[in-house]
Design a protein that fits this description.
By secondary structure, the chain is α+β, with helices and mostly antiparallel strands. It is built from 4 helices and 8 strands; from the N terminus they run αββαβαβββββα. 48% of the residues lie in helices and 14% in strands. Strands 1, 2, 3, 4 and 8 form a 5-stranded mixed beta sheet that branches. A 3-stranded antiparallel beta sheet has the order 5-7-6, with no helix packed on it.
């Protein structure tokens, strides 16, 4: 009797072990299957991420190329607008596309004011400063050509004052000279000499306290394309 019980118990235990093993196998299979599915999802997400990064990179490159093209087009448009405005301003100085203030002359990239009143060199410099400008400096041959075209005579220039005068100097030899004034409006001695234009192409020294006309210069504003197009409708078309 005891042997049957023992055998039955053993059989029952073996049966329980088998069931546990089967359950474990089922759980393991589920875990494996779940892991495989999640791995596949992860691979898909990784692939999607890589494709998205490629598309973003391509889009950025495309945008950069578009940006460069837009910049080139803007520069070309600005150049054409400036040339057209310059021609319009030659025929009609008060044209609204003119980038210089009223009574200022547009030449190259700058605006020039030729004064009608007479002032000392120091006061001339202050007047230019009050107009957000400075006394004329000869930076290149284009400025020299502008001076020649205006037949200027006895106008103060933006050259630093000095204690001793020298002989007449040719204007073109002063292009980009370190002598050009860098702004210092301290009171000048009555014996200081400042330079002005004589006979269009020569520089002459005179006392800084001598009243003369003066030339102010400042950078011209960019020409606005819309200012050219406005009111430029051909006759008969409204």
């Amino acid at each position: 009797m005891s042997e049957e019980v023992t055998y039955a118990d053993l059989k029952f235990q073996d049966s329980s072990k088998i069931e546990n093993i089967q359950e474990f196998d089922q759980v393991g299979t589920k875990v494996y299957t779940t892991s495989k599915i999640e791995m596949e999802k992860l691979k898909k997400l990784q692939y999607f991420k890589e494709e998205l990064q490629k598309n973003v990179s391509l889009q950025l490159m495309h945008n950069m190329n578009n940006s460069k093209n837009i910049t080139k087009l803007s520069i070309t448009l600005q150049t054409i607008a400036t040339k057209l405005c310059y021609e319009l301003s030659r025929k009609k100085p008060e044209h609204q596309c003119n980038p210089c203030p009223k009574e200022w002359i547009w030449h190259g990239n700058s605006c020039y004011l030729l004064s009608k009143d007479f002032k000392t060199w120091q006061n001339s410099d202050k007047m230019c400063s009050a107009n957000n400008a400075s006394l004329l400096k000869i930076k290149d041959k284009s400025v020299v050509e502008f001076i020649k075209s205006q037949n200027l005579h006895n106008y103060w220039l933006g050259l630093s004052p000095r204690k001793d005068p020298t002989d007449y100097e040719n204007l073109e030899k002063k292009i980009m000279s370190p002598d050009w004034f860098t702004r210092n409006t301290n009171d000048r001695s009555d014996r200081m000499y400042c330079r002005n234009i004589i006979d269009k192409i020569y520089i002459y020294y005179d006392y800084c306290t001598t009243p003369k006309k003066y030339i102010c210069e400042k950078l011209a504003n960019p020409v606005r394309t819309e200012s050219i197009l406005m009111n430029e409708v051909p006759a008969g078309r409204i």
